[in-house]
Design brief:
about 100 residues; alpha+beta; 4-stranded antiparallel beta sheet; 4 strands
């Protein structure tokens, strides 16, 4: 019984932590886009297809496929990686234009 409680507690903690990381990453993406005069159109978290970050991303980092619109109305795609390699939140994000 104790083992079940521990496993369920760990799963709930992991889910809450993942949700917080995604929220922080989304805020970082929005902030970066605004600072560069872009509007975020769509953000997709990528778990399997990590684009240019496939080989050098840890399980603690989030990879996102993002569509942005520039002031001229042109839509562009980019890949964003958030978080540190060894875990924890990061102040910066890695950007790679698609």
């Amino acid at each position: 019984m104790v083992a079940v409680v521990i496993i369920v507690g760990a799963a709930v903690g992991w889910i809450l932590l993942s949700g917080r990381r995604a929220k922080v990453a989304r805020a970082q993406i929005e902030q970066w886009a605004n600072a560069n005069g872009l509007a975020v159109v769509n953000v997709q978290r990528r778990l399997m297809d990590r684009g240019p970050f496939f080989w050098n991303t840890s399980q603690f980092q989030g990879v996102y496929y993002v569509l942005v619109r520039d002031p001229a109305g042109q839509t562009r795609a980019l890949w964003v990686r958030s978080g540190r390699y060894w875990g924890g939140a990061s102040e910066t994000i890695d950007i790679h234009w698609a």
